[in-house]
């Protein structure tokens, strides 16, 4: 046995050539008329039509999520409210304010809390993790409290 005598187990399928000679008659299996029946036919890519239409669509089908900005929610509390809710020496954090239901979650997130200086504070408080105004900070530190 020589190398040229080796046969493949499964010969390659030969593509049927249409329209050469007889035996299929008239349209030679191409159907009737239309782009596919012509010589040299080629269907253009479907995406081409979509791309050509884009100027007229003017943003249709485009997600607007890429333009959305993350909006941060702020909650303002006054020292007077903290004076009513907390005892002397208590620690005030966003988590504790949620437990006391002074603050609500917005979109499953704890909002940023800012404490302002209006109202009377007569207790020593430990404030952490909150924004605080200058007047509120001096009022808390004046009573021996801490702000971090």
From TrEMBL:
Tagged with keyword Ribosomal protein: yes
Skewed-composition ranges (Basic residues): 9-27
Swiss-Prot/TrEMBL GO biological process terms: translation
A GO cellular component annotation in the UniProt record: cytosolic large ribosomal subunit
Disordered: annotated segments: 1-52
Annotated ranges, domain Large ribosomal subunit protein uL15/eL18: 77-147
Annotated keywords: Ribonucleoprotein, Ribosomal protein, RNA-binding, rRNA-binding
GO molecular function, one term: structural constituent of ribosome
Record-linked InterPro entries: Ribosomal_uL15, Ribosomal_uL15/eL18, Ribosomal_uL15/eL18_sf, Ribosomal_uL15_bac-type, Ribosomal_uL15_CS
Pfam families the record matches: Ribosomal_L27A
HAMAP family: Ribosomal_uL15
Function: Binds to the 23S rRNA.
Similarity section: Belongs to the universal ribosomal protein uL15 family.
Subunit structure: Part of the 50S ribosomal subunit.
Name by which UniProt lists this protein: Large ribosomal subunit protein uL15
């Amino acid at each position: 046995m020589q190398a040229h005598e080796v046969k493949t187990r499964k010969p390659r399928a030969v593509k049927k050539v249409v329209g050469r000679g007889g035996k299929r008659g008239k349209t030679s299996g191409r159907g009737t008329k239309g782009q596919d029946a012509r010589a040299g036919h080629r269907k253009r890519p479907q995406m081409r039509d979509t791309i050509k239409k884009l100027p007229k669509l003017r943003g249709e089908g485009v997600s607007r999520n890429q333009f959305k900005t993350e909006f941060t929610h702020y909650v303002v509390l006054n020292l007077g409210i903290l004076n009513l809710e907390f005892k002397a020496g208590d620690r005030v954090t966003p988590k504790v304010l949620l437990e006391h239901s002074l603050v609500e979650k917005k979109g499953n997130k704890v909002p940023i809390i800012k404490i302002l200086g209006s109202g009377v504070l007569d207790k020593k408080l430990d404030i952490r993790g909150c924004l605080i105004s200058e007047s509120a900070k001096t009022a808390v530190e004046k009573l021996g409290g801490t702000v971090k």
